[in-house]
Amino acid sequence: MKSTALTKIHESLGAKMVPFAGYNMPVLYEGLVAEHETVRKALGVFDVSHMGEFFVKGPQARNFVQYVTTNDVDSLYDGKVQYSCFPNGKGGIVDDLLVYRYNSEYYLLVVNAANIEKDWNWVVEQSKKFNLTPGTDLINASDNIAQLAVQGPLALKAMQKLTDTIVTEMEYYTFKTLTFAGIPDVLFSTTGYTGSGGCEIYVDNKDAEKLWHAVLDAGAEFGLKPIGLGARDTLRLEMGFCLYGNDIDDTTSPIEAGLGWITKFSDNNEFIDKDIMLRQKNEGVSRRLKGFEMIDQGVPRQHYPICSADGTVIGEVTSGTMGPAIKKSIGMGYIANEYTKLGTEIYIDIRGRLRKAMVVKIPFYKGS
Predict the structure, then answer these.
(1) pLDDT 10s digits, 69-82
(2) Whole-model pTM above 0.85?
(3) CA-wise closest residue to 344 among 309, 318, 297
């Protein structure tokens, strides 16, 4: 099992460590509900150094990234970030990712930790069509980069203390390369997976501990605390954000998953599976990923059957939890198309008992 550059620090702080995506990661510090509320109301810091980073360089960089992702890379400008996904050639999803544009010949792809090897093999195979050379034009820097996510409404205000570059006025989903906490060439990005604002900060592994301590010191007066991956999951689910391996995978299409907004069919955007996804958009799909709230008592969990009133299985839960900020049991799942209208009553089979729920609009958490 791999460790991040900060694993020993987490252990020294008494974090509960668990295997996650091949890494030894902190899942809890103080407790899930307290950590969740810290991020919603103030700010918290997550070690997300397990994420993967691929750099794409050269004259064919734009054409390659446009081909392997569903979103329209031409809508990016220097310093802009985009959410996208890799289609798998069969209408499914290899992974979801962030695309960072430095310039028209230089991009960063940030991928999920559990999929680094799979994603790398996929992009290397596709890169042959564009004569990109792995190690030169296409670089897997995942093992060399540490990343902290500082999330919450006070995050940017606190982090401004660590740089002379203005970050409090940065637009959502943009990034800068700056000197931060005395560390040069830091990638500072106004992205995140919590829905409460904040930033993600990338440094070389050798600077990870310096960054960690600087972030904790700068955030202390605002109530910053270390946060584990348990709260990261409840925070993202309250926002209705997809988690790869739960809500999307190689068997789900972006159209089914409600990710049509990152699937762009403009004439200049020729990508893998464009024909399949355009047909799904025009002709419809038999199931869709939808959010629901429990009406009866019970907490939905992944793989629980979703049923109609007479017990007929009409879908399956992909993610579920008790939302700490909204104080409701919530979930997402793929549901047969005829049951996906907002307000439709459905039933979750929780250990053999049908519990009533209702299809609702996401995000579940609307903000304060």
Answers:
(1) 999 999 999 999 99
(2) yes
(3) 309
Residue 339 structure tokens: 């049951």
Taking only the tens place, the pLDDT of each residue in 272-292 is 999 999 999 999 999 999 999
Average pLDDT on 169-176 reads: 98
CB burial readout 268-277, b (16+ within 10 A) else e = ebebbbbebb
Q: In what helix (H) or strand (E) does residue 241 lie, and over which residues does it extend?
A: none
Reduced to 3 states (helix: H, G, I; strand: E, B; else coil), residue 58 is coil
Integer Cα distance of 368 and 366 in angstroms: 7
Ordered structural domains, the chain, with CATH: 7-50+143-238 (3.30.1360.120), 286-368 (2.40.30.110)
**β 23-28/93-103 pair status:** unpaired
Question: Which residue type is seen at 214?
Answer: A
Distance between CA atoms of 335 and 209, rounded to whole angstroms?
A: 45
- Backbone phi, then psi, for 93, in 5-degree steps? -120, 120
